[in-house]
Structures are given as structure tokens and as C-alpha cells.
């Protein structure tokens, strides 16, 4: 495992603990990032300007202490696939 792979869980864990810092509209943008939408598509979906989307993305990246839109997209995907207890939504429980 290289350093990037080893650091990944800490990056997502730290970022996801800060999602509550986002405003409602930033959260709306963040939630849609996992769908791979462009800024124009996000703007159209949320009935806001593309410039406003860019502003929200800057705030999301800053507040979650990420370094790129790509990492914000990945964080959004992880956020969608995790349960509140940190397990994958698709993980099945073992019978006792």
C-alpha cells in the first residue's frame, strides 16, 4: 500500500466530519457532486447560476479541507455510500 492509499481513509473521515459546516445550498451542491455533474448541470438542476455553483464549490473544498473538485466529488460519493456508523450501506450483517 502506498502513502496515498494509506492516507485516503483519514482524508475522507476528516472531510466527512465537517459536512455539517456546509450551508444548506453548499450541501445541495455537495450531494449532487457524486453524480458527476458539470458546473452547468449543477446550476441547471439547482436553478442557480454557474458562478454561484463555482462559489459553493470553493466553499465546500475550503470547509472540508480538500484540495480539488475531484476530491470533493469522491468525498460526496463516500458520504452517500456510508451509514451514520461509518459502514458501507451495502454491507450485510452477519447472522449470530
From TrEMBL:
InterPro entries: Sig_transdc_resp-reg_C-effctor, Tscrpt_reg_LuxR_C, WH-like_DNA-bd_sf
Keywords annotated in UniProt: DNA-binding, Transcription, Transcription regulation
Gene Ontology biological process terms, A to Z: regulation of DNA-templated transcription
Pfam family, one: GerE
Domain annotation HTH luxR-type: ranges: 15-84
GO molecular function: DNA binding
PANTHER family documented for this protein: DNA-BINDING TRANSCRIPTIONAL ACTIVATOR DEVR_DOSR
Protein name: DNA-binding NarL/FixJ family response regulator
Source species: Saccharothrix tamanrassetensis
